[in-house]
Specification:
Blueprint (H helix, E strand, L loop, with lengths): L1 H23 L2 E2 H8 L3 H13 L3 E6 L9 E5 L5 E7 L3 E8 L4 E8 L6 H15 L4 E8 L2 E3 L4 E5 L4 E5 L8 E5 H11 L9 E6 L3 E7 L2 E2 L31 H4 L1 H7 L5 H9 L3 H25 L3 E6 L1 H19 L8 E4 L6 H8 L3 H5 L4
Parallel strand pairs: 4-7, 7-11, 12-15, 15-16
Antiparallel strand pairs: 1-3, 2-3, 4-5, 5-6, 8-9, 9-10, 12-13, 13-14
C-alpha cells in the first residue's frame, strides 16, 4: 500500500510540474518551485526524470537575477504525440498532436459510419498502425453520444445507431473514448478560447447537439456520465419526434443537419448562402432556430452560471447568423447575475473535437486525470 501511495504522489507531482511547464511554455526550476510549492530538491529530481523520459528539455538560458543564469525548461516538441479520432455520421476526422500542443496533421476520411462499427474501427486501426512507434502515446476517440470512459464503452450514439459498443474489444490498452462535445471542451481548456476560464460550456452541432461542461476547471459529467446532452432539452412539447424517442428536443430543430432539412436544402452551407442572399423563408427558419437555442441557453446559464459559452463544430458555419438573436434572448430572459455570459464562436472551426480527442492520452501526463 505504501508503495502505491508513493507512486501516486510521484505521478501527481510529475503531472503538476508538466502542467506548469505547459502553461508557461518556458520556465525555470526556481519558478516552478514557487508555483507548485514543492521544494527545490523535489523539483530538481522531478525535472531530471522528465528530461530522461524526453517529455521536457532545456530550451534556453534565462536572464540572471544576480547569480548564475537559470536553465529554462519547455515541453519537448516533436517527440511524444497522440492521435485524435472524431467519428461523425458521414466521415472520420484524424489529428495528431504532440505534447507541446503542436498540431502535426489533420485529415478526414469520408465514410458512411451509421451502423458500420467494424468498418469504422478497421479504418482507425489502420491509422493507428501508421503512427506506431515508441513515441506514440495512444489514440482518443470522440463520438456524439453517451460514453462510459471507465469501461471504454459507447453506451448510445443515436445518430450513428450504435449502442453498447465496447471499444477495448477492438483495440489495445492505449485507447481512450470521450463524448465529442466534452472533447471540444478539453481542447478549449488546454489551447483554445477558455485557457484562463474555469467555468464554461462548449456546444457542438451537426447531426445532433451536445455540450461539454467545465465547472471549477474540471469536466462535469453528472452521476452516470450523461451530463451535457442539451440536444435533448425539450424546447417545444408539440414538436417532432427525436432519435431518442422523445418529442420536441432542441436538436430536432437546431442541429445543422435538421436546419438544412427544414429549408429543403442539401447542406448547411447552402442554407448560409441563401440566408446571405436575403431569402425570407430561410431567414425565418434561422429566426426560429435562434429562439429555440435561446430557450436552451437561458436554462443553462441560469442553472450553471458559466463565464463563457463556446459554439463549435458546424456552429462555426452558421452560428454568426444566429449569434445576435441568441445573445439578445439570453440578455432578455436570463437572471441578472447570469446574463453577462460571453457567447462566442470557436476559432478552431470544426476541429475542436478531434483535437480534444488527441489530448485524451495526454491528460494523465498533464492533469493526473485517470481516463
Amino acid at each position: 500500500m505504501l508503495g502505491n501511495n508513493n507512486r501516486l504522489v510521484k505521478e501527481r507531482n510529475e503531472a503538476l510540474v508538466m502542467e506548469v511547464i505547459r502553461k508557461n511554455r518556458e520556465i525555470s526550476k526556481a519558478d516552478i518551485a514557487k508555483i507548485t510549492k514543492l521544494s527545490a530538491n523535489a523539483i530538481g529530481m522531478i525535472t531530471s526524470a522528465l528530461i530522461e523520459k524526453e517529455f521536457i528539455y532545456k530550451s534556453s538560458t534565462g536572464k540572471s537575477s544576480g547569480g548564475r543564469r537559470p536553465e529554462m525548461l519547455s515541453i519537448k516538441p516533436g517527440a511524444f504525440f497522440s492521435l485524435g479520432v472524431d467519428i461523425d455520421t458521414d466521415r472520420i476526422r484524424f489529428a495528431t498532436v504532440d505534447l507541446a500542443g503542436e498540431v502535426l496533421e489533420i485529415k478526414r476520411l469520408k465514410m458512411d459510419c451509421v451502423g458500420n462499427v467494424e468498418k469504422v474501427f478497421e479504418a482507425i486501426k489502420s491509422e493507428m498502425a501508421r503512427h506506431s512507434c515508441k513515441y506514440f502515446l495512444g489514440a482518443g476517440i470522440a463520438v456524439a453520444g453517451q460514453v462510459d470512459i471507465k469501461s471504454k464503452t459507447i453506451v448510445l450514439a443515436p445518430n450513428l445507431r450504435w449502442s453498447d459498443v465496447n471499444v477495448s474489444k477492438f483495440f489495445g490498452g492505449n485507447i481512450f473514448i470521450e463524448n465529442e462535445a466534452i472533447s471540444s471542451a478539453i481542447y478549449e481548456s488546454f489551447y483554445g478560447m477558455c485557457k484562463d476560464t474555469d467555468n464554461f460550456i462548449c456546444i457542438n452541432s451537426k447531426s445532433g447537439i451536445g455540450a461539454g461542461i467545465f465547472i471549477d476547471g474540471k469536466v462535469y459529467r453528472g452521476k452516470s456520465g450523461s451530463a451535457g446532452e442539451i440536444g435533448h432539452l425539450i424546447t417545444d412539447y408539440n414538436g417532432q419526434k427525436c432519435e431518442c424517442g422523445s418529442f420536441g428536443c432542441l436538436e430536432t430543430v437546431a442541429a445543422s443537419s435538421r436546419i438544412a432539412a427544414r429549408c429543403n436544402l442539401p447542406s448547411i452551407l447552402d442554407v448560409v448562402e441563401r440566408a446571405k442572399e436575403g431569402d425570407r423563408k430561410i431567414n425565418s427558419v434561422l429566426k426560429d432556430v435562434s429562439k429555440h437555442m435561446g430557450v436552451a441557453l437561458v436554462s443553462l446559464v441560469n442553472t450553471l452560471n458559466p463565464e463563457k459559452i463556446i459554439l463549435g463544430k458546424e456552429f462555426c458555419i452558421y452560428g454568426q447568423l444566429l449569434l445576435g438573436d441568441i445573445a439578445s434572448f439570453v440578455k432578455s430572459y436570463a437572471l441578472p447575475l447570469s446574463r453577462n455570459v460571453e457567447i462566442l464562436i470557436s476559432d478552431a472551426q470544426n476541429s475542436t473535437s478531434v483535437l480534444g480527442a488527441a489530448l485524451l492520452p495526454q491528460l494523465k501526463i498533464f492533469k493526473g486525470w485517470e481516463v
